[in-house]
Amino acid sequence: MITLKNINKIYQQKNLSVHALKDINLEIKKGEIFGVIGSSGAGKSTLIRCVNILEKPSSGDVIVDGVNMTTLSNQELIKQRRQIGMIFQHFNLLSSRTVFGNVALALEFSNISDKSFIKKRVTELLELVGLADKHNSYPANLSGGQKQRVAIARALATEPKVLLCDEATSALDPATTTSILTLLKDINRRLNITILLITHEMDVVKRICDKVGVISQGQLIEQGSVAELFSHP
Ligand code: ADP
Ligand code: ADP
């Protein structure tokens, strides 16, 4: 579902260049939950943002559901990104819009304007994430866990095949982290959606990932099943 081939990313600043990703090769199968773990500055955020080309790799290929993301025109990229939902550490909700409005926005951005369709779809999505009673609340009046549920509903609005999770539980307390990880696993099973997540927390990887890659100084230094990597004979 996701293939990264020889990805390099070099950030060019005035007189400094940072080689943030070095020859990354990765293969994530349909329906898998794949975690990339590493410390701060290792390249996790750059890696996940290369998958939907929020960052353009300096070289290499990114293939999502058979489409080479690196060769698309801007117009094609916008369309292909509907196959790829994304959630963030700080949720990225619009404070001026209600819960309903935040989720509806993802549909409006996809040029869906049928009001009754939008209402039906948003209602379904809010039920899926357990927020059916919060349609008219504003983000400021929600807990962190509730905000992340809204963000998950928004990310799933266009029925993506892939969900990218950028430190999705890092701003949450342990109990809320558990509830969000449970929801992600549930969505993975029910919708057969492929999940790529990045985290600095070993526990997150151990709890929901099928496979894991370890990134250090821009290199994937190990990858395999969670059982393989974390067994201590
Ligand atoms: P992580 O998500 O693991 O903390 P990042 O992908 O954010 O790591 O960063 C990897 C490296 O790239 C770091 O050295 C960081 O300072 C550098 N970097 C990230 N974004 C930029 C940018 N926009 N410009 C220059 N350097 C950057
Ligand atoms: P940043 O992460 O720096 O805030 P992004 O480019 O990731 O910037 O996001 C810009 C805005 O687009 C965010 O405010 C967010 O609400 C919205 N957004 C990003 N990804 C999605 C998505 N998959 N679905 C709907 N809205 C999104």
From TrEMBL:
Residues 2-233 form the ABC transporter domain. It is a peripheral membrane protein. The chain holds residues 1 to 233 of 344 of the full protein. This is Methionine ABC transporter ATP-binding protein MetN. The keyword Transmembrane helix does not apply. Keywords: Amino-acid transport, ATP-binding, Cell inner membrane, Cell membrane, Membrane, Nucleotide-binding, Translocase, Transport. It is found in: Cell inner membrane. Its main location: membrane. GO terms for molecular function: ATP binding.
